[in-house]
Amino acid sequence: KLAGCTLFITGASRGIGKAIALKAAKDGANIVIAAKTAEPHPTLPGTIYTAAAEIEAAGGKALPCVVNVREEQEIINAVDKAVKTFGGIDILVNNASAISLTGTLETETKKVNLMMDVNVRGTYLTSKTCLPHLRKSRNPHILNLSPPMNLNPMWFKNHCAYTISKYGMSMCVLGMAEEFRGEVAVNALWPKTAIHTAAMDMLGGSGIEKQCRKTDILADAAYCILTKPKSFTGNFIIDEVLLREEGVKDFDVYAIAPGHPLIPDFFLDVETDTTAMKQERHGGAKVDTESLAKPLSPVAETFRVIQGAMSEEYVRTTQGVFQFELSGDEGGTWYIDLKTKAGSAGFGKPPVTADVVMSMSSADFVKMFTGKLKPTLAFMSGKLRIKGNMALAIKLEKILGQFNSKL
What we know:
Elements: E1 6-10, H1 15-25, E2 30-35, H2 48-58, E3 61-66, H3 72-86, E4 91-94, H4 109-134, E5 141-144, H5 154-157, H6 160-179, E6 185-190, H7 198-204, H8 216-226, E7 235-238, H9 239-245, E8 276-278, H10 289-293, H11 298-309, H12 312-318, E9 320-327, E10 332-338, E11 344-347, E12 356-361, H13 362-369, H14 375-380, E13 385-388, H15 390-404
Helix pairs in contact: 1-2, 1-8, 3-4, 4-6, 8-9
Domain SCP2: 311-400
Pfam families: adh_short (PF00106), SCP2 (PF02036)
Family: Belongs to the short-chain dehydrogenases/reductases (SDR) family.
């Protein structure tokens, strides 16, 4: 599928960037290895030249270019060389990243500058330089190795500068996908679990690899994205979720130590049930940080399952919005909207005025939704108070019967 396509990959001398390069090389793609390492590094494996040899051996054509994405002229020179050598650029993979998992007072200014320069500015400038060439391609793609933007403060408090820099890459996806819609696809890819790379060894120490997956999972997911039409754009994709949707069932093949527990990756604190998370659907400009900060408690897990079980059929037959005022350990306001579009559920007030407001303890709520407490009995015994449309409240009881099997 990628035969004859030219991929410009930053940080492709090792790790994830090289894995994506090798996957494309098997199709006979041209790979521009835009990375810093020309001379062997004392602790990190590989150079742009050893990567080039592997790419050629895999069946691709390689163009190694010394590129530090902090230097705009080096990016421009490499892009010019790529266009002269291969006739154009079809795909850009912004993979180069710098990381320092340190708190605000512990992060030296030079480290802050490095992360902002490589992650945000480097991604932006490389995209800007490649875009005029990408627009001439038949099926152009930009793919950033960056996460869905999760505003849970937990992901900021221990490494604020790193988080800002990675979300800067994600914001490039958000903005450029819209700016170049119909011309160039722009998406983000992020792993569900930790990936075993030289960087992970440095961060986690010896033995960490058993809790990681191989870079192959990201290479396979990237290949799926880059072979889709350019109309597939503005998505924040999690590797495992996409591959499951593509029919992959055996994920042990990606594990370094099959059966060993895996470390979940940063920025993912809830199960993700949709491949392409459109960022605007997840709060957009209006982000409820309180709801994002809630851990996946029994109530939150219940709503996650309800959200996953939503269907247009439920919405069509119910036509009601339910608000739950819960007391106790997991107190707060939650809602189920079975009136608007395809339906929704979650923390906070519903997007439109509720038809029914139900008040009860969070413990009884979980019992009710898992079939251990009948709503009628809860109401009769005073555990459940209902305000509003009683007929809709009765309708909800019927729907609960269908949800119970999933909960």
